[in-house]
Please model this.
Amino acid sequence: MAEQATIDRVKAAFAERFGGEPDLIAQAPGRVNLIGEHTDYNDGFVLPLAIDRGTVVAARRAGSEITVYAADFDAEDRFTFAERIDDAGPGDWRNYVRGMIAMLVELEMAPQGMELAIAGDVPQGAGLSSSASLEVAVGLAVASLAGAEIDPTLLAQLAQRAENEFAGCACGIMDQLVSARAEPEQALLIDCRSLECQPVPLPEHAAVLIVHSGVERGLVDSAYNERRRQCEQAAGHFGVLALRDAEEAQLASAEDLDELARMRARHVVTENARTLGAAEALAAGDMARLGRLMAESHASMRDDFEITVPAIDALVTILQREIGTEGGARMTGGGFGGCVIALLPQERVAAVVKAVRRDYRPPNGKPVMIHACRPAAGAGLV
Model:
């Protein structure tokens, strides 16, 4: 959930832009993924949690035109339902909002006219799903304005479609689903084929640290879509619906499989196994086993999936060294920059933070951003 300061900021922005009070305020959190990277679009398993930062939307029914004000950019968008809602061009924040509204228009879950003011506190380009947070918050606000009670899983599916079709990113369902369905103090083991979600409690003594590498990333502009195509190619080679259905022994024995495709597939197959193991370890409070699985996950992302960067690898090395055996660290998110997640005993936090600030220098020259969080609740009305 977004912090109170962000809720207050969006209220003030709404009053200044549109006058008066909104009819309702909706929020949706960003997320961080403990383990299970690039497995979601392969019908696999992921283990994310919602964070205590998010997007807030103040909304009010109004006339027959949609007016959207993004307080973070001091920018406005206006459009109507009279013609097809089109995307606004590559990399434009408007695409996420327009796409989400277009999905709800299809289902007759959107009023003809409305005023929306939006603000968020999820760091952009950090791999913490600011885009999914925006989509889910907008979707909940718009559907609620229309008087519709929208199922959280349907909300996440519409948000995924919006990102695929309007923002041009072939993302899986993880980010949107955890933003919509997360529970406080729980990670969420998601089966990305069935969309079944199983809450997994974090040990009370465990702390979650999110450390920004200082390398911003953008999924649409990165090799994310390329990795997805490579995974689909490998699944086709084995004649399976998705790499979730492949086994590690198959990869080793397939002599006619391209080596690059073998590497990509090996990451996904082994990452699924690691994710299921991590959920078991987390539920049992076995921080040592969880740390080993996180280390193996990072090595697989670095060597087989090739989505880390030197700054990320250096940061993970520092964190793993300082945490020791009772916890671990790995890159989180789509790759090519962004953040590292660490899970460690609460009593180790101060020493680990001190070591990171001493030994790590972000490439952007800014002070290293470290955020300690507990798992937050999913989307809701404020």
In short: The radius of gyration is 21 Å.
